[in-house]
Amino acid sequence: MGFMSGEELVVTLAPVAVYWAYACIYEALLQRTTVLDRYRLHSRRDEETKNIASRKDVVRGVLLQQAIQVAISVAVLKLEGHGAASDDGRTAPEPFLVLAARFGVAMLVLDAWQYFMHRLMHSVPYLYRRFHSWHHRVAAPYAYASQYGHPVDGVLTETLSGAAAYLISGMSPRVAAAFFAFATVKGVDDHCGVSAPWNPLQAVFRNNAAYHEVHHQRGGGRRNFSQPFFVVWDRLLGTHAPYALRRRDGGGLEVRAFKDPTR
C-alpha cells in the first residue's frame, strides 16, 4: 500500500504535465515557425523589452508554485480521505448530468474566488507591491508565464481557489484531474499572447487571451480581473473593459481597450 493512490497521483500531477505540454506547443509554434505570427498580440521585440522577469526567472517561479500546489493538493486529498486504501476501483461512475453539474459548480467557484482575490491584490497597494506585481513583470505574456508570480499570490489566488472548487463541487479525484487539467489549459491559453479566431477556447469563452491582454496593459490593472472562464463578475461589478483587435504595423495584432458603453 503506497502513500498515494493512482487517482491522487493523477489529480496532483496531471495539471503540471498538461501545463508544460500545452505551453511547449505554443513555444514551439511561436519560436520555430511563423504559423501564428499574424495572430501575435506582441512582437518578439516586445517580449524582450517590456518583460522585467527573464524566462529563467519565470521557469523557476512556475516550478516553485507548482511544487507548492502539489503539496497542498496532496494535503487536501488526504484530509478528504481519498487515500490508497480507498482506491479499490469499485466506485460506480456518476451519471453524465451529475458530472456536468459538478464541473459547472467548480467553474463558478473558481471564477468567483479568483475574481475577488485578484481584485483585492490590485486594490490594496501593499498586496500588489509585495506579491501580485511579480505576475505583472511579464507585461507581454507568453504561454508558460501563466502561473508565474509570488508564491503567496499563487497560493491565495490559484491553489486555494482550486481547493475550494474541489471541495464545494464534491467531485471525485478522477473528475478533479480532468477539471484541473482543463482549467490549466485555459489559463495557459489566456496568457499565450496569441488571438486566433479558429482557437475553440478563444471562440467559446469571452474571457480569452485578448480579454486578459487588456488587464496586462499599462493602466489595465483596474479592469478585466475575471479569470479563467467567464466575464460575469467584471460585468456585474463595473470592471469590464471591452476591446477591439486591430492589425499592428509590422504584423500581428494589437488590443485596443475602450470604456464600456453600458457604464
Query: Which strand order does the major sheet show?
Result: 1-2
How far from one another are the termini?
A: 59 Å
Helical run tally: 10
| Overall spatial form | globular
Largest beta sheet, briefly?
A: 2 strands, antiparallel
Return residue spans where pLDDT drops below 50 for at least 5 consecutive residues.
83-89
| Elements, N to C (H/E) | HHHHHHHHHHEE
Number of E-state strands: 2
Proportion of helical residues? 55-70%
Instruction: Calculate Rg over CA atoms.
Output: 19 Å
Mean pLDDT: 91
Q: How much β-strand is present in the residues? A: under 5%
Broad structural category = mainly alpha
Could you please describe the fold and organization of this structure?
A two-stranded antiparallel ribbon has the order 1-2. By secondary structure, the chain is mainly alpha-helical. A hairpin with a 5-residue loop joins strand 1 and strand 2 (about 255). Helix content is about 55%, strand content about 5%. The relative contact order is 0.16. The model is unreliable at about 85-90 (pLDDT under 50). The longest helix has 28 residues, at about 95-125. The protein has a domain at about 5-85 and about 95-195. It is globular, with a radius of gyration of 19 Å. The chain has helices spanning about 5-30, 45-50, 55-80, 95-125, 125-130, 150-170, 175-190, 200-205, 210-215, 230-235; strands spanning about 245, 255. Keywords: Endoplasmic reticulum, Lyase, Membrane, Monooxygenase, NADP, Oxidoreductase, Transmembrane, Transmembrane helix. One of its GO terms (cellular component) is endoplasmic reticulum membrane.
